[in-house]
Amino acid sequence: MSIRYLHTMVRVKDLDKSIAFYELLGLKETRRHESEGGRFTLVFLAPDGQEECPVELTYNWDGDEGLPSDSRHFGHLAYEVDDIYALCQKLMDAGITINRPPRDGHMAFVRSPDNVSIELLQRGDNLPPQEPWASMGNTGRW
Question: Which residues are catalytic?
Answer without folding.
Answer: 119
